Amino acid sequence: MSSLSRPFEMHHEGGEDGASPLNFFNTMEDQRKQQWKNFVSNLEDECSDDSAEEDIAKKPTGRGGGAGVAVGSTNDRDPPNGEEGKSSLHPGSANNSLYMQQLRGGFYMGDGKQDETAARPPIGMPSTLPLRDWIGYYASNNNQTTLSHMTMGKRIDKSYLEKATRVALSLANKLDEHYGGTGSEGAMHEKDVIIENVVVIDTDSEAVGFVCASSPSDSPQHSSQQGQRPVIYSLGRIYYEMFSQGLSCQSTSSSEPSSFDILKVADEDADSASDVEHDKRKQPRRETKGETGRGHYSALQLAGLPSSLCQIVADMLENFDDDGSGGLFRSDTSVASLSDVISDLQQMVDEPNSFLHDSLLMRMEPIIPDKLYGRNDELHQCLEIADKVFQCERKSNGIDHSQSTIMISGFSGCGKSSIVKEVSHVLEEKGWRCLQCKFDQEVRPQPLSIIATAFDIFLLDITCKLDNGGRQEVKKGLDHMLGDRDITTLCQLIPTLGKLMPVNDACSKPNKILFNSGDAAASKCRLHRLFGLLAKALSNQSHPLFISFDDLQWADPASIDLINSLVHGIIYDDSSEEPMSASGGTHMLVVGCYRSDEVTYSDPLATCIQQMKDCSTITLKEIHLEGLSSEDVNALVSDSLFYPRRLTRSLANLIHQKSAGSPLFVKEFLSSLATENLLTYSLSKHKWQFDEDLIQLKTVSDGVADLLARRLERIPDDALSGLQIMSCLGSEVSLEILLHLRNVCGNTDVIAGLDSATENLLIKKKPTSYSFVHDMIQQTVYQGINQQTRVRMLKEIADTVIARTPDTRTDAVLFVIVDLVNRFGPENTSSREDRALYAQFNLSAGEKSRNIPDFASARLYLESGISFLDAGYWTHHYSLSLALFKNAARVHWVLGKTNLMTNRINEVIGNAKCFEDKLDSMNVLIRSLTIDGTSIEKAFEHCFAVLEYLGEQFPKDLDGECIRSELVDTNAKLQQLLPESLYKLPIMEDVQKKEAMKFLSIASYLSYRQKNRYLPLLVCRMVRLTMSHGRCAMSSTGLAGMAICFARRNVTIAYELGKVAMILNKSPECFSPEVTFYVLAVVNVWKEPWQASLPPLLDSHKMAMKCGEIATACSMSESYQYRSFVFGSSLSSLENGQIYPFLGFLARHKRIAPYLSTMPTLNAISDLTGRPQRNVWEGIRGLEDDDSNLSNAFNKKDISRAVRIVSLQLMLSFIFRRMGNAERLVRQYQEFFNLHEAEEAVVAIMRAFYSGLIALHCLRESKDQYWMDIALNASRAMETWAEGCKWNFENKALLLSAEYHFSIGEFDKAADEYHLSIASAHEHRFVHEEAIGNELAAYFHLDRGREDLSNELMTRAIECYQSWGAEKKARSLLHAKEH
Fold it and tell me: What is the arrangement of strands in the sheet containing 618-625, beginning at the earlier edge strand?
């Protein structure tokens, strides 16, 4: 018969009433209850005493003494015998009355206030009860259906223990709050800590309060050695009685035995209750306080309490110091601080099944919880940023808030992924949509497949989880952001998008090249834009998007660039009126994780992070993780063992010392201690045991890797073999691949082995894949395979997959094969057939990578394919060799690898069997020479050589008549096809003529850049080929080129040709984004209002960005910004809403030429507004100022940029009246630019206008004929242009005429023309030219002595400059006017 069952038997088998220890105990408790009733009765009598109530009003309140302290104890623990009916409180009826008021209303909460908001308990139980009555209430109302613990013949309800634990925690917290003030007024000491002074003030929430606090003079002085131990001992006595439902820790009189004595005697002899009582009375009374902690533990265990409560109470009672030894013989487990008590109880409250009832305690090894430790601050920071994203709204000026981004760094295993996982879990509950992707170290998958797969899984998850209404909402967002062509393109990377948004079965067309392989930046920009629009479509204010990228240190450059683009936002938004306002990040949070010790300063990731730091539209939060603190490690160890933290602290300190706080190391080290029996659980003692000295001696040479290696040695062979095969394929492997690998590398069933490994918590099984629990495990397994075996395994796995997927090979499988092949390399491949086969696989991977586009990956695959070719490859494998070298040349070119490009082109040209096989490489060579800038003439020569071979010859000597005749004849033939026949021409099918059109387009561009005389002949030939062989992509370009050629000869013909080109360009077969730019920027400026050209120019810029034509888009943007400036747009809006975002885009894509072409406009705005510039691109520092930029333009022979800089300097010099500098600029550059005619139409117009104004000013000063000639030429040109378009040129022509008449003394005519010019500028919305007209008219009338009119005109000029945004100019005029 067990000792736990004996009290139950005594209850049923006891003798006469009062003859058993149980009856004795009940009698004793009845006496205590009667004492309490008498005590309360006395207090009620005092409350009815009027004089006492008057005393209350007179007594001061406070925490120390007086009415603020209700005393209820003496130096003894219990009232003396025979004094039950008398109050044993400190003297003072007011104090006693206050005590009763506290019992009836609010109780003392430790701050001198009353709690008036306590919730009322269920009916049948008072809202406030003395603790002992509270215990008695539950003891008499046990729920017999949920009993689990038994004491002294009575069963203790599990729910009671949980309630009692919450009361105990509340009591410990209250006591800790009081005890922290020992020595101050109102503080408590241990003699007040008795059960009689504790009241449950809220029986619903188990909150407690004290009804007694001694005055400071009563506080005993304890040595610093004792600390909090005396009060802990007193608290332990209360817990003893509360948890056991009435057993006392010490008898109240010498004639009464303690509960411990009763239990002990009952355990020794349960056969006769009367004998027990008789023997007990013969023995001298044994005080519990004299028992050791182990004795208390046994008594409580005998009472039926769980070991967790036995342990904490016994350890608290260890603090009794009766012999004055100061705890010399005290147990090591004794509780030394209230914080330890609180910690133990808090764990019991939070996880009662584990820490209170011991239901999960009895096991042989630790169970590591899936929980985040020691990262609360970092987690809070992430969630705080997420909350800001969730609550953000669009700014009133149309520009989005900055994109929030978090970068988490730290060593391997420090918990980066765990933070992201926890953040994702919290955000999903708040309505966020979470997308996660993780990069791999060993395996190089399909380019961008990590990110694309993450989007694909995300869309599949949406399709499956959302109801029809939710799916329709997502589809609506996708339809709003993405067009059919966009969806068709993305479907090749994200198949699920095609299922969600079907578009004419376009997604089923394989491997269609949708990007411009001739311009890496253009193709990359288009792809980035599509992903940016997709992310924006999937996020909104109700459902923000959370995207996390894990292990970024292993991300390929293409993925880094795409992530950078997502963070920066797409360069424009179709719904925005501002062309360059960054958007797409308002409702999106991006989080990246990387190992800081594996990223160097020169890595692409480091560059990406630095760009984020430098960007003004990105809010970047960097979080660096170090190791866990010893307390955090202790929390992890405690939760893993389900053992109190105060008892695991020494073990945790050892583990922390070994692991440096690495969470992964801590978990593995803890598991290894249990595996090696250095940490064991004692079933008999209900405790974990370990030897600190042995653990201290345990060495771990290689950290986590060493622990993992030892762990792998203990798993079954089939599981290890499966892990080794899986490690060759990556950290996560799809079932599609694994199903092809049965019976490979000596393993008959890989999947069965992996299933076995899941039981060892090394990998996780998902519905469609297996993944390693941590990438460190995959690395350890892979690196544990010796080199020779690894090569053999890689080749066998690759050959197996190739053999088993002959007709069903997907792109994902293709890239798995190529990755395996390239890891064992050509040096381990001897067969010529195998080498050719592996080269062919690399060629396929390279072409697919180029089409994605990921040119960096394409280069690696193509060069790997070339490395597999054996000697004599041009003879044995001509087609394969040609394709590899041709594609490699193009990829090297777009990546700027000039030397490698030249080497591969020479290989093709030297070994090609026919000229047709050389065409693609010749195209690459010509384009590379064009971009170089200094080899345009050489590129032109190569271009004409190719055209000659293709049958398109041109005369070497040209004269004006030949050019004029060609233009007139071609236009005449074209007019015969207009207006309908041209648009009905068939599509060009002749391959040779299509190639000729490509090279004619390149040659016409080179001719335009060089300003040579071949341009009319080239564009006319393009038009003739279109008329004779049909339409193609370059047909509209040829028509636009003809319009440009006629622009300086016959504006009317040029304007009509421009219209034809624009109409033809609407056809999908003939669409070319640059056509719109050519027509708007060069042709229509002579006929249509300038302001009207801005919206279509903006639209064409957007269209070029959509198509990936980044060069054309940049040219359009430069033109748009320059025109917006010289047309009088708001300077502030232009600067912040357009120019700065565009410069940031150019900086990210390293587009130096358009960046430098845009800087003069920004410099002019900065000069006019007086605002300093912000540095956007550190890489071009030193070239931002106009003088350095102009010098660079001449060195690069970029005449177009040079003339733009000069024209803006002329404008600013005149506006700010820097006439000496203005005169110098005109004399230095006027004749040069007239000879070259290199400027755009608007630039030429503005240069002529300001040169004329400067010349007329200088004419009045010097009467030099040189200035008269320049002025007359400018005035005549402006009058001629005004005849074609009054809107654009009338006010300019009138102002030049007014200045001219002022200069020659015709003042009345000048006065009228000033007035007309101002009115015309106002009518046609040229506010800046209205300001200039008013200012010049003011100078004129001041010269004529009309000061009042001059002041009035000057005031209007200031107002106009301010309206434009030229605050600096306005201030200078205001200052001059005042002085």
Answer: 433-438, 545-550, 588-595, 403-410, 618-625
